[in-house]
Amino acid sequence: MNDMTKTCGMCFMQIPAQARKCPHCQHFQNKMSLVMFHPAFGVIFAIIPLALMLIVFLRIFDTGKDFQVFSNQVEVAESKMAFGEDKSGGMVAVMGTIKNASPVPWKDIRFQVEFQDASGTRSDTGQKEEYSYYLPANSSLSFKVSFRRQFPETNYVSHTIRVISAKDGRTRW
């Protein structure tokens, strides 16, 4: 090797000392080009968009907080029964207030209601997500769930109602 030549950093062939680009492999000879065209640099540029797409994908399909962890902080504060009729028969409705003491807003709240007769025996039961309720964190909300009566009104003396499931209100799905 003489002062008139140098070694290409990519293909290791002897090239003129003044060459900016190797005539054999067409690779630029400055240090920045060596870094920019290194295979590891290309892998990094491929991984970054994939990682960003994965983060976006995970945020879109995030199911949020598990309701069971906060179920003791979401309760029916008060409720009462009401009876009515519509064109297809008798109805029983439970209306009341639901209270959320958790830091999480909830949506798609599912209620379970059990009706008892005069002797305290369960006479009917049902689960309902009739409306897409949205219950903000640390607040209360009025609700109503209606059921078609299967039995005479005398079988519906008292009731118990509770929230059995809900979804994190901050999630998309």
Explain this structure:
The protein has 173 residues and is α+β, with helices and mostly antiparallel strands. The protein has two domains: 5-60, no CATH class; 67-168, Immunoglobulin-like. Helices cover 18% and strands 42% of the residues. It has three helices and nine strands. The chain has helices at 31-36, 39-60, 67-70, and strands spanning 5-7, 14-16, 74-86, 89-100, 106-116, 122-128, 134-135, 139-148, 158-168. Strands 5, 6, 7 and 9 form a four-stranded antiparallel sheet that branches. Strands 3-4-8 form a three-stranded antiparallel sheet, with no helix packed on it. Strands 1-2 form a two-stranded antiparallel sheet. A hairpin with a 6-residue loop joins strand 1 and strand 2. The two termini are 68 Å apart.
Number of helices: 3
Q: Which runs of at least 5 residues are low in confidence (pLDDT < 50)?
A: none
Quickly count the domains.
2
Strand content: 35-45%
Helix coverage percent of residues? 10-25%
Tell me the CATH superfamily of the largest domain: Immunoglobulins
Run of helices and strands: EEHHHEEEEEEE
Q: What is the second-level CATH architecture of the largest domain?
A: Sandwich
CATH topology of the largest domain: Immunoglobulin-like
Q: What is the CA-CA span between the terminal residues?
A: 68 Å
CATH class category name of the largest domain? Mainly Beta
In this structure, how is the largest beta sheet organized?
4 strands, antiparallel
Q: How many whole angstroms does the radius of gyration measure?
A: 34 Å
Number of strands: 9
